[in-house]
Amino acid sequence: MADRYLKYLSIKSVIIIIVAFLLDKVSALSHNCSTTVWASYATTIAGSPDGIAGFNSTLLDDPMGIAVGKNDSIYVMDDTDSSSRLQLFYPGSQSGITIINTTSGTDLDQFDYATAINIDVSGNIYILDLGNGRVTKWAPGASTGILVAGGNGHGTSLNQLGGPWNFFVEPNTSYIWIADKINHRVVKWINTSTATLAAGGAGCGSQANQLCYPGGVFVDTSDSNTLYVADTNNNRIQKWLYGASSATTVAGQSSGVAGSAFNQLYMPFDLIVDTNGSMYIVDYGNNRIVLWLLGATSGRVIAGTGVGGVFPSQLNGPYYFTFDSTGALIVNDHGNNRIQRFPVICSPNMTTLSTTSTTAISQNRTMAIPLTTNSLTTSASE
């Protein structure tokens, strides 16, 4: 009797989830909404939906940087202790094609824990190599990279990187802004010789001129290179005007206090800012993606439940994210060894799922998909 009752509850739970999902979609299609809404449930577009790790064509072992390429193909940097590979997943296929495959090492055709990638409009792939303290650039089809930043050993000098984690490549100039995490600073490389200090560099701290293990950077090139930094260990987003010696806190608490309330963040890892000044933030410690509108004192959750897990509605330690050409959220669900896609189900001026959204991204961190209001395009080559 007890077994029958438990089976009934299990079936009932599944039915409730399905009905809620369908109602969510029907509601979105029936009404124009004032702001963009993403589906609560994601589909897995790379890796295992169940979070199983592996190092073959259908599984991921330690997914790091992601980027969107031509026709919404997905690039994923995947690492093990001894090997690194760059996987390409075409839309509709969960079997990845290996673009770069190498062992751990210091040569220019090797990596020592590659944490972030970036693709320019010509299809060149920039790879941030944490262990080697450098960024290399790979032309389409190349078997080795060329050095474009760092590579002078780990250190605190401006021609060195201490522990680079994430970066932003300017679309027009190819200048490289790097979150030098261990040195608690952001540096800008305009050539391969040396960098200039863009933010932080005053040690780990929570003062307005300090950062503490910054994990993400975004540069608004349409606004005089205003710099946004995911100040990870201070649980906040800092905004640095170009050339300024200190920043203002635009998301989270300026004091650095962590939390799960809507006006708090817990170890933000990554961010993108759209043309309206809205910030999309990977709130790693809270297992969610949040949206902070321009001038807002709190955000709203647009992906994840806030509780780590493997269900389609959940994330487990998300690292990075980007957008595809439809405005869908593409999330590196790192703790689950998978890449999740949360589609747009409602946005202003949108009446069906097939029309374009108004997500309005000015520059994507990956540069693969510069998005603009009502005109979502992809311009990167494979």
UniProtKB/TrEMBL annotation:
CDD domains tied to this protein: NHL
Pfam hit, one: NHL
InterPro entries in the cross-refs: 6-blade_b-propeller_TolB-like, NHL_repeat
Keywords for the protein's UniProt record, in alphabetical order: Glycoprotein, Repeat, Signal
GO cellular component terms listed in the entry, alphabetical order: extracellular region
Protein name (Swiss-Prot/TrEMBL): NHL repeat containing protein-like protein
Organism field: Adineta steineri
Native organism taxonomy: Eukaryota, Metazoa, Spiralia, Gnathifera, Rotifera
